[in-house]
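Format notes (please read before filing issues)

Several people have asked whether sequences and structure tokens are stored in separate files. They are not. Every record keeps both together, in the order shown below: the sequence lines, then the token lines. Line labels are part of the format and must not be stripped during preprocessing.
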Amino acid sequence: MFRSLLNLFFPKLCAACSKKIIQEHPFLCMNCEEELINSTTVESRRITRIFRGRVPIEKGASLFYFDKKGKVQAVIHQIKYREQKDLAIYMAETLAQKLGSDFFEDIDLIIPVPLHPKKRKKRGFNQSEFIAEGIHNKTQITLDTKSLLRVEHTQTQTKKGRFERWQNVSEAFQVVGELIDPKAHILLIDDVLTTGATLEACAKALLKSKSRKISVLTLAWA
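Then the structure lines:
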């Protein structure tokens, strides 16, 4: 009774289209669930191709194509700017389930792309950590949020071109201590892959003078 009254005055809205959700799904309406989850296949080849000739990537995958002003953008913005942690975890768990155990079989460590402490303090959270938590939930692979730091407070990448993005973050990341096995296969996690500049900079910091392997996983690609 209480839940029915709550839904009457504060109805659940779909994270993708903002329509009222009438079924039990906590995040998406039936149409968006079908379009974004049931009918979506994971993209892999295009993801690894982005890094070809730039940094060695073992494998990569992404769940959605990021279309501006589309449903995927709406979902990502809910996660990135409105701290929708449960939505991020659900999407990440869906991605892990679609990939299957083979993708994660030789992964030793999950590392989300870090925010600079100033940006983390201002925003209050790191959306990539939410996604990484969802992947961890499904795979039980160790999650490490301490060993890779963002040491430069760079400008937002949103309106920058490919070279500007690379230049903006090329020396922004640093590995702290020796907590990571030198031979570990690390899965880097981010929300959206565009030019790959941020993930490339993270990978290079982790690979510096080490024999580690790097793979990448994002919720969306553009």
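For reference, the curators noted about this record: The beta strands are 60-65, 109-112, 142-143, 148-150, 173-175, 185-193, 213-221. The domain at 41-221 is CATH 3.40.50 (Rossmann fold).
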